[in-house]
Specification:
186 residues, alpha/beta, Rossmann fold, 6-stranded parallel sheet, 17% strand
Length: 186
């Protein structure tokens, strides 16, 4: 079965990305093989490779962390980007993770799932442009999870993600279906 990486883009100490990743896994009624990848676990120093990411004819990453990240991304058939909207954009950690590589992303389908006070649509639009530059293939449906409607604990955690995002469940399942179709047509 094709491996899909669900990449959690938030590295902030106080975040709800893990809860949203669990919510996405629960919407996976198609039996897709989805592995959650937390960018906290992949510290990639900013632009530390001496050359641009590998393109035609270049395959010599110097840093072990870049080689490991390259192998991880290259092993995936597709992706789910789970990204918060920060000041109308997406997190720098995701941009850095994307920019560390090039050819490993090409031609692979991706679901863009955003979240924020209004659902994170501006961040989703921005990352869609970056996906175009990397030759990733975003599926048409982009689930947007509005956090303002979600009830929170005193610690900032979501009380019940399933209830908070019940209205978005069909979009998530549609996006996963589109991802599955893209994987099968490849």
């Amino acid at each position: 079965m094709s491996q899909i990486l669900l990449i959690m883009a938030s590295v902030r100490p106080s975040r709800v990305a893990d809860q949203l990743a669990d919510w996405i896994h629960a919407r996976n009624t198609l039996g897709l093989s989805i592995e959650t990848v937390d960018l906290r676990d992949w510290p990639l120093p900013m632009d530390d490779e001496p050359h641009q990411p590998k393109q035609e004819g270049f395959d010599g990453y110097r840093s072990e962390h870049t080689r490991n990240w390259s192998r991880k991304v290259d092993s995936a058939a597709g992706f789910i980007f789970l990204l918060p909207q920060y000041n109308w954009g997406y997190p720098a950690a995701l941009k850095n993770a994307l920019d560390h590589l090039y050819s490993e992303w090409q031609g692979k389908p991706v679901v863009i799932t955003s979240y924020g006070a209004g659902g994170g649509g501006k961040a989703a639009d921005q990352i869609a442009q970056v996906c175009q530059g990397l030759h990733l293939e975003p599926v048409p449906t982009r689930p947007a999870l509005p956090l303002k409607a979600a009830e929170r604990t005193d610690a900032g955690r979501l009380v019940d993600p399933a209830a908070a995002f019940a209205a978005q469940a069909a979009d998530m399942q549609a996006a996963l279906g589109e991802l599955a179709a893209a994987l099968h047509s490849a």
